[in-house]
Amino acid sequence: MSTAAIVVAVVGVGAAAGLVAIVRTRWLQSRTLEKCVALSVALHAVIAAVCGLVGGWAPASWGRRDDAPPAPVITLGDDADGRPVEGGPADEGEVAGGIEAAEAAATAGREPPPPLVPVAAPAEPLVAGPPADHVPLLDAPAEASADAPAPADTPAADAVAATTPGAGTAATDPAHGLPHLLPSAYADRVGERRAAAALARGGSEATEEAVRRALRWLVAAQSSDGRWDAARHGAGHDHAATGQHRAGTAGRCDHGVSGLALLALLGAGSTHRDGPHADAVDRGIRFLTGRQRADGSLAGDAEFFAALYCHGMATIAVAECLAMTGDAALRPVVERAVAHTLAMQHPHTGGWRYAAGDRGDTSQCGWQVMVLATARNAGLGGFDGAEARARVFLGSVAGGPARGLASYRVGERPSPAMTAEALYCRLVLGGSPAEAATGEALAFIAASPPVPSAPNAYAWYYATLASFHAGGPHWEQWNARLQATLVPLQRRDGGAVEGSWDPDPVWGGQGGRVYSTALSALTLEIYYRHRPLHERGQRLAATPAP
Known about the structure:
Elements: H1 3-24, H2 32-54, H3 92-106, E1 134-136, H4 155-162, E2 172-173, E3 178-179, E4 181-183, H5 192-200, H6 205-221, E5 240-241, E6 244-245, H7 254-267, H8 278-289, H9 304-325, H10 331-344, H11 362-377, H12 384-396, E7 398-399, E8 405-406, H13 416-428, H14 436-446, H15 457-470, H16 473-486, H17 508-524, H18 526-529
Antiparallel strand pairs: 1-4, 2-3, 5-6, 7-8
Helix pairs in contact: 1-2, 3-12, 4-5, 6-17, 7-8, 7-9, 7-17, 9-10, 9-11, 10-11, 11-12, 11-13, 13-14, 13-15, 15-16, 15-17
């Protein structure tokens, strides 16, 4: 038994004995009011002392309204669809055992990862050497790691490879005068490869024109200090969404929407050094990096429920810029930001939510898994254990006969949106598109296709990511419905909103027009923003059995 527990027990017994003694005597029969006041003060002092002892045992989010998650908690449709949840939620012992097995499997046959570093001032960088899966910028086709299986010979891959420019001069890192190698995951964003990839993987001139219009609007909407001001463009309107009132969650999310806007610009090939929108990217990156907190967070002024979401979005943007340019000045910022993400993960459940100690939810998990994946592309490492724990969390929210469905939190009913986000995370973490769970998830997502009457930028973004990276007939069907719905919703009537998307009725009130436009542009950049996971060799890792 811990010292704190012993002290609490002794204090409790003593207080109970004293109260019995007082009741059994006639002490309260004279000057009753004064004595009651004194007794009340003493009792509250004891309670305060006990709370001070046990306060560290509770998650930091106790006392907060748990029904008020920030904008990115969404559904593709009505999640009350009667889909059964197979199996119950895992208890603490099962989760801990799963994590031990996952970590052992993830590190089998190789040296254990370096220990995690402190958040505020890392003792040593989170670096495990540059990733093997890099190609010279604009010089050669994307190639898989030498340790990974060769990518499948697909028509899309062949079409993109056929358009690769001939040998030339690789991009140079001005800080070191050395050629910079672009990760193959991002190689299709640049030069002639972008148009070829869009054509080969299901895009069209209509989708590309929509992206160009959206990026022009985003650049025009940027503030002079480099941020995208969410409130200036319609954010900050609390409302009831999906049956829950999110009071106080809107506004102060400039770092989050700025991260999304930067990701849209980066997704089309611009960086803070090159591309038609280099100036906008440069000012945006400077805004984010210049306001990093001492603990590594890039959340800016975001309030409690939105802070980790904003941190994730901003971190992914800065890490992508580092990966695409090799700018050494960005590396310390990314290292500190990734360390913050690692510190916020629950050590037993493997999930993320609002504060360190929260058990986790699938919506938050998606952004933090993206943080780790992007950091790997930027050359960082040392978080195999965190990824293994994330797999365990995804297993804890899984449902369906093949365990391919997913709920927002443990024990809740699966929804299409959370199923899409969980599927994407599983693929990023080494899951196979050929698994039965993948097919089950894709069928569930397809049952809630995009419709013009119910726009939901966030939901369509994750469903598009999951379908694209899984590939196959489900992707072709989803892509056709997506284009037929999303492209016509873009504003093309001139004026200040030309090229943007109206804030959707689900979370647009919280994120505003920048949020809806950036996510919609990212969705239509899917054809080249990342090389499809089903086409390229990937870092395979064992997934613990459910």
